[in-house]
């Protein structure tokens, strides 16, 4: 089966910099096998996510969607890509336009991808908001009226309203309180199940990774040091860095 | 707050919001009265602008509310046309400044590398360039009309607006909702119109209101120097200049336009202050 | 001996909302207390009130007795004497807690000089000592650096060194590891633990994370919506929570943790 998304020997170097942010990274995202990118700050997790989203271009190596490269000139294919790959961000405060009503925010992918008009989008938006567990009047309100957890639900609604195949998520729950975090993790797990969504998640929180992803890749300073089944990687880590990460997780007293 | 996922009920802040709306109301009243004078002057004036039948430098009273100037023209009539010119100058300059400034500012915000440097340098030069010199150049190229003054003021102000817009846009562009718009397939023009401009709008409108006040002052300055609207159109600056020689004997001729000028600028600044928070949906909701 | 005695502390905003409601707690000399709560629970405001650092427009009522000084209603001059000497604080975000335009060495030198009256080479040596104590490698280089030139973990160590430079009797740590990576967090917690042990200091450790609190303190107070929900030994709170809220908190933490265990066990 062709992987949905693929990075092959990718390296990225910022302009004016001499060092690569990520180097020689190869990853495949196959449908139904959610992938976690684990690592600490500066490891290059977010850079990889931006590459997968087509927001940055690699200095060398290739990014492939459905087996072929992406060109911004190929409008039809770009639209297909945008529709198939959506994103949720870490900070639920900066990811929602404060001057738009929630209804317009959630409808944006439908409208921008030319899938719906304002009128045909409305019922889909309402259904999606309901699906993520928000009250019916949400669409008419502004983001600032909601708590962090609710805002993250709105962001998830926006990312899933056009039924993408892949959901890229950048630390989707790390800004949330523990009790809220559990609920949002549950929601993402349900959406994965129901909509056959494949998740690619950047996280430093191994327990969230373990809850949501079948596969895990561990990044250290721009390199993948270990990747494989999550159970394998977290249960029997072979790389010392992975082991150190696992040992550092604070645990409740038994 | 994230914990319960319920909305914290925020008590309305009466103290702050009512003070703010009072600012707005006072500002609107001041500027509104002068705007009314300007509007009425379009359809009705007590005397014709070139009617010199009233006798020279008569004091207030008689057939003339504020008296006449040294040529015998009615001061109140001049004041009314002057307020019309003030609004034309203010609105015209702000329109020029906004159109040019927003375009340049957005371009500069998106520009990278040498283009960014070039645009920034250009704006810096334009800001440093004296408005007076600019006005003289334009008047030399065209003629001493209100349009020339407006063009000069608007050009000078567009640099200030552009620099502000550049910074504001750059800040908005770092927000995740812009990235979200891109990954939603929203084109750059639509992102600018739909996300960037609405989010810089409150700050921008406040600044444009302040620019309006500055433009009115600048136009008065230019017509004081004879670089503004030509006679018989009496702009406030020209009135001040003409009344200068007779200030000690007939102060009304200078005081009246001076006072109106101050009131209009204060009024517009109060409006700017009042707008600042009123335009924010967060505070708007809280007050509702 | 009781070092910190908070009784009926209530914090209100100017428009009358109550953010901390009738909170009481005590910290004895050499004791460590954890303050657990989620965002909006009022835990951070409590620490600010204890230091008399509440933002404008907020008022505290009740009693905060810190080493014999009544903080509520105290003058700024009085408070300045207490801060640092009796209690020092480490905040969540070290980048905002440090002056971005001042070299790290000077920022540590200031409180040190105030306490010890050292000058010149002796002061420099003391700064070096303070940086070594928080296990920063290359203390000379760090002392010369500006805050933005060092990593987040290093900044937080600098903030800790600054707090300890005053040799306070109570260390208040407000989410000191939340902004840090997991492995850096583990090191930081160990560091706080050992430094506090050596100096026999008291600690008020504020965090939303039960597991983190459990590593540093033995006793904890759970807060919700400005009120104390439950207080007790951390082990008891985790094993046998009495209140509904504590139960929910523990259950959530356990849920996430169990995912980790299941994965690793397979």
Automatic annotation (TrEMBL), chain A:
MF term (GO), any: ATP binding
Domain ABC transporter: 5-246
GO terms (BP aspect): peptide transport; transmembrane transport
Family matches, as Gene3D superfamilies: P-loop containing nucleotide triphosphate hydrolases (3.40.50.300)
UniProt keyword list: ATP-binding, Nucleotide-binding, Transport
Domain of life: Bacteria
SMART domains named in the record: AAA (SM00382)
Family: Belongs to the ABC transporter superfamily.
Protein name (record): Dipeptide/oligopeptide/nickel ABC transporter ATP-binding protein
Lineage: Bacteria, Bacillati, Actinomycetota, Actinomycetes, Kitasatosporales
From TrEMBL, chain B:
Primary location class: membrane
Domain of life: Bacteria
UniProt-annotated location(s): Cell membrane
Signal sequence, start to end: none
Gene Ontology terms: cellular component: plasma membrane
Keywords, alphabetical: Cell membrane, Membrane, Transmembrane, Transmembrane helix, Transport
Cytoplasm keyword on record: no
Pfam family, one: BPD_transp_1
UniProt membrane topology term: Multi-pass membrane protein
Transmembrane segments: 21-47, 85-110, 122-140, 146-165, 204-227, 247-272
Gene Ontology terms describing biological process: transmembrane transport
Domain (ABC transmembrane type-1) ranges: 83-272
Classification via PANTHER family: OLIGOPEPTIDE TRANSPORT SYSTEM PERMEASE PROTEIN APPC (PTHR43386), PEPTIDE ABC TRANSPORTER PERMEASE PROTEIN (PTHR43386:SF25)
Similarity remark: Belongs to the binding-protein-dependent transport system permease family.
Protein name: ABC transporter permease
Origin organism lineage: Bacteria, Bacillati, Actinomycetota, Actinomycetes, Kitasatosporales
UniProtKB/TrEMBL annotation, chain C:
PROSITE patterns listed in its UniProt record: ABC_TRANSPORTER_1 (PS00211), ABC_TRANSPORTER_2 (PS50893)
GO MF: ATP binding; ATP hydrolysis activity
InterPro entries reported in the protein's UniProt record: AAA+_ATPase, ABC_Ni/Peptide_Import, ABC_transporter-like_ATP-bd, ABC_transporter-like_CS, P-loop_NTPase
Record protein name field: ABC transporter domain-containing protein
Compartment(s) where it occurs, according to its Swiss-Prot or TrEMBL record: Cell membrane
Membrane topology: Peripheral membrane protein
Source organism phylogeny: Bacteria, Bacillati, Actinomycetota, Actinomycetes, Kitasatosporales
Entry annotated with the keyword Cell membrane: yes
Residue span(s) of domain ABC transporter: 4-250
Primary location class: membrane
A family per Pfam: ABC_tran
Keywords associated with the record: ATP-binding, Cell membrane, Membrane, Nucleotide-binding, Transport
Keyword ATP-binding in annotation: yes
Stated family: Belongs to the ABC transporter superfamily.
UniProt GO cellular component terms: plasma membrane
Provenance organism: Streptomyces brasiliensis
């Amino acid at each position: 089966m062709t992987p949905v998304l693929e990075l092959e020997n990718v390296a990225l170097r910022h302009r004016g910099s001499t060092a690569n942010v990520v180097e020689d990274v190869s990853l495949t995202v196959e449908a139904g096998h959610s992938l976690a990118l684990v690592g600490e700050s500066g490891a290059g997790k977010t850079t990889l996510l931006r590459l997968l989203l087509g927001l940055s271009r690699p200095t060398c190596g290739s990014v492939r969607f459905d087996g072929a490269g992406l060109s911004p000139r190929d409008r039809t294919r770009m639209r297909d890509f945008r529709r198939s790959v959506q994103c949720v961000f870490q900070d639920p405060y900066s990811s929602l336009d404060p001057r738009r009503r929630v209804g317009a925010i959630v409808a944006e992918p439908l409208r921008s991808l030319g899938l719906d008009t304002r009128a045909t989008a409305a019922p889909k938006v309402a259904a999606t908001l309901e699906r993520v567990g928000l009250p019916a009047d949400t669409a008419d309100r502004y983001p600032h009226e909601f708590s962090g957890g609710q805002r993250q639900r709105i962001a998830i609604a926006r990312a899933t309203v056009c039924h993408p195949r892949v959901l890229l998520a950048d630390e989707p729950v790390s800004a949330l309180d523990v009790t809220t975090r559990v609920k949002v993790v549950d929601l993402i797990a349900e959406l994965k199940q129901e909509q056959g969504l494949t998740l690619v998640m950047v996280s430093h929180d191994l327990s969230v990774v373990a809850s949501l992803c079948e596969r895990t890749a561990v990044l250290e300073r721009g390199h993948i040091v270990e990747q494989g089944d999550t159970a394998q990687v977290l249960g029997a880590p072979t790389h010392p860095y992975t082991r150190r990460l696992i040992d550092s997780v604070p645990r409740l007293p038994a | 707050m994230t914990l319960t996922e319920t909305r914290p009920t925020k008590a309305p802040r009466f103290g702050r919001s009512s003070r703010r709306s009072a600012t707005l109301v006072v500002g609107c009243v001041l500027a509104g009265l002068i705007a009314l004078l300007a509007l009425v002057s379009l359809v009705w004036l007590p005397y014709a602008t070139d009617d010199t039948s009233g006798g020279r430098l008569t004091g207030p009273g008689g057939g003339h509310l504020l008296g006449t100037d040294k040529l015998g023209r009615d001061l109140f009539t001049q004041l009314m046309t002057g307020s019309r010119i003030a609004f034309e100058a203010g609105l015209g300059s702000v329109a020029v400044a906004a159109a040019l400034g927003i375009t340049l500012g957005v371009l500069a915000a998106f520009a990278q590398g040498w283009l960014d440097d070039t645009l920034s340098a250009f704006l810096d030069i334009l800001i440093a360039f004296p408005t007076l010199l600019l006005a003289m150049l334009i008047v030399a190229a065209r003629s001493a009309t209100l349009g020339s003054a407006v063009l000069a003021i608007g050009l000078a102000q567009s640099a200030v607006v552009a620099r502000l817009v550049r910074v504001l846009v750059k800040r908005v562009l770092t927000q995740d909702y812009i990235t979200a718009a891109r990954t939603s397939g929203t084109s750059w023009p639509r992102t600018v119109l739909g996300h960037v401009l609405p989010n810089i709008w409150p700050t921008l409108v406040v600044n444009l209101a302040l620019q309006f006040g500055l433009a009115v002052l600048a136009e008065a300055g230019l017509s004081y120097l004879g670089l503004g609207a030509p006679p018989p159109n009496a702009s406030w600056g020209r009135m001040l200049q003409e009344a200068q020689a007779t200030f000690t004997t007939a102060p009304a001729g200078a005081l009246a336009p001076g006072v109106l000028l101050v009131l209009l600028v204060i009024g517009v600044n109060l409006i700017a202050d009042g707008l600042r928070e009123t335009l924010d949906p967060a505070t708007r909701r809280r007050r509702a | 001996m009781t070092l910190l005695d908070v009784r009926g502390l209530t914090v209100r905003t100017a428009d009358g909302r109550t953010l901390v409601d009738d909170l009481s707690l005590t910290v004895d000399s050499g004791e460590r207390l954890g303050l657990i709560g989620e965002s909006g629970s009022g835990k951070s405001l409590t620490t600010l009130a204890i230091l008399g650092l509440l933002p404008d427009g907020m008022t505290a009522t009740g009693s905060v007795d810190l080493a014999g000084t009544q903080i509520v209603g105290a003058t700024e001059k009085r408070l300045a004497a207490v801060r640092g000497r009796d209690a020092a604080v480490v905040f969540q975000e070290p980048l905002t807690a440090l002056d971005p335009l001042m070299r790290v060495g000077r920022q540590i030198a200031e409180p040190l000089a105030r306490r010890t009256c050292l000058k010149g080479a002796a002061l420099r040596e003391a700064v070096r000592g303070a940086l070594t104590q928080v296990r920063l490698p290359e203390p000379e280089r760090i002392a010369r650096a500006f805050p933005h030139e060092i990593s987040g973990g290093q900044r937080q160590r600098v903030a800790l060194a600054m707090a300890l430079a005053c040799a306070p009797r109570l260390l208040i740590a407000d989410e000191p590891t939340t902004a840090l990576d997991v492995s850096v967090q583990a090191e930081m917690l160990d560091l706080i633990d050992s430094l506090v042990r050596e100096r026999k200091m008291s600690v008020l450790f504020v965090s939303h994370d039960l597991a983190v609190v459990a590593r540093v303190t033995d006793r904890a107070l759970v807060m919700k919506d400005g009120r104390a929900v439950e207080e007790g030994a951390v082990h008891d709170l985790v094993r046998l929570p009495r209140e509904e809220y504590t139960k929910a908190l523990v259950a959530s933490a356990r849920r996430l943790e169990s995912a980790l265990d299941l994965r690793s066990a397979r």
